[in-house]
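We were asked to recover a plausible sequence for a given structure. The inputs and outputs are reproduced exactly as logged, with field labels preserved.

PROBLEM: sequence recovery
POSITIONS: 459
GIVEN STRUCTURE:
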């Protein structure tokens, strides 16, 4: 047995369970304006897929009766915080798990209130599909536009538009067509090419798990049928190899045998791609090259490791690698840079301004950064980039950052993990923005740019 077993990274715990062992996994998130029925829809999905325990359902029915309701308020299945139940709104992201005969689902129920847009960014960042709810009576609202913009910027592969409360407009086809046309227009402006609309009633279950006879004019699938039929998400195994180093393992002590006293390994989770023993790799940002001589997974020695496995790599050369560095394949390694142009979703109460100093976290590394300029902000009314001197809470804008040391960032369109980062307030450790390297706003080319010859920011 390897004497460093207790120091090596453990095998990846996927958190699988018998209830979620069917078919392919799909990660979905809900979005939409407040009171559009997101929590009710999630509760309906859980109920209709028989993913609710009998005692949970009994508790929901009891609380619903106490509130004078004639039926169970399924939104209570997801509104877990006391403040959420008291106010009847969603505040935090609630993760729920359910499965059908053909597929397993991880669902993030995101809040609709504008002040909790930051939580929607969190819930949508890893989603394969966003279920965007729209109240059939209200159509597209400002928060709907904001959530759709976030979905587009995060490059979520699929969007399904649930035109909810169709029962409150007497299942009128013209109402559905009008809302669908409006959302498709907004989606095209934002570059979303895959947005499918479905008329639903989350309260009554129309077109949620099964197709409803009350919408004879609609010939498409129910929401659940649509989700079951979506193609699997792009496997990160097919991307270029990247491993952000989380820990350098150097076991020491007299109890180790001579063969393992010089053990040096670099532990982390494979973010993308595949690495094999004998592969030539490069450490970033230093640019030093070496060859993989061993791959350890707990007590096991592997010939190869692939995306989302937590492993320890051993290299042929003793090069300077520390936490925060990235080990990448030589053929397509990114070029480290200190200058980043990115789109950010600003999540702090105090606005972002040029010259502000923040910490930037990319992968497992955190560096100091300065905001060189704000090059535009997204106007949610006409979905165009406009000049901006600051970014208030929940605004989406294009910024240029100067880093204290180079990072091997990638274009977000190429790699969602390699192209994403967080901005952190150095004083209290709060996350104040989520960023996407190389992303652009609609008509961003018309946004103001930094004047030529402007002095470089020094950190």
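RECOVERED SEQUENCE:
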């Amino acid at each position: 047995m390897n004497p460093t077993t207790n120091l090596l990274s453990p095998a990846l715990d996927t958190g699988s369970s018998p209830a979620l062992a069917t078919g392919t996994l799909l990660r979905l998130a809900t979005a939409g304006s407040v009171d559009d029925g997101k929590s009710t829809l999630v509760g309906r999905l859980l109920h209709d897929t028989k993913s609710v325990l009998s005692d949970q359902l009994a508790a929901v029915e009891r609380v619903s009766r106490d509130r004078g309701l004639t039926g169970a308020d399924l939104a209570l299945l997801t509104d877990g915080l006391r403040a959420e139940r008291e106010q009847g709104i969603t505040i935090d992201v609630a993760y729920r798990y359910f499965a059908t005969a053909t597929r397993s689902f991880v669902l993030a129920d995101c809040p609709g209130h504008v002040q909790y847009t930051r939580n929607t960014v969190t819930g949508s960042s890893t989603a394969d599909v966003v279920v965007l709810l729209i109240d059939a009576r209200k159509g597209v609202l400002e928060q709907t536009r904001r959530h759709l913009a976030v979905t587009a910027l995060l490059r979520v592969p699929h969007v399904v538009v649930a035109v909810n409360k169709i029962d409150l407009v007497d299942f009128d086809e013209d109402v559905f067509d009008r809302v669908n046309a409006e959302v498709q227009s907004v989606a095209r402006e934002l570059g979303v090419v895959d947005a499918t609309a479905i008329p639903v009633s989350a309260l009554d279950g129309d077109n949620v798990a099964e197709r409803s006879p009350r919408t004879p004019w609609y010939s498409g699938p129910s929401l659940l049928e649509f989700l079951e039929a979506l193609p699997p998400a792009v496997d990160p195994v097919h991307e270029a190899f990247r491993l952000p180093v989380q820990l350098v393992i150097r076991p020491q002590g007299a109890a180790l045998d001579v063969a393992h006293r010089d053990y040096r390994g670099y532990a982390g989770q494979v973010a993308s791609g595949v690495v094999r023993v004998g592969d030539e790799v490069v450490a970033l940002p230093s640019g030093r090259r070496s060859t993989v001589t061993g791959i350890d997974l707990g007590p096991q020695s592997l010939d190869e490791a692939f995306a989302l496995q937590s492993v320890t790599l051993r290299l042929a050369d003793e090069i300077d690698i520390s936490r925060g560095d990235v080990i990448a394949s030589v053929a397509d390694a990114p070029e480290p840079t200190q200058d980043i142009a990115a789109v950010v979703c600003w999540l702090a109460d105090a606005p972002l301004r040029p010259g502000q100093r923040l910490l930037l976290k990319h992968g497992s590394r955190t560096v100091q950064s300065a905001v060189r300029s704000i090059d535009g902000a997204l106007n949610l009314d006409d979905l165009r980039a406009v000049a901006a001197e600051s970014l208030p809470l929940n605004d989406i804008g294009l910024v240029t950052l100067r880093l204290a040391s180079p990072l091997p960032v990638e274009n977000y369109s190429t790699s969602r993990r390699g192209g994403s980062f967080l901005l952190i307030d150095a004083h209290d450790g709060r996350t104040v923005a989520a960023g996407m390297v190389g992303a652009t706003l609609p008509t961003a080319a018309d946004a103001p740019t930094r004047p030529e010859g402007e002095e470089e920011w020094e950190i």
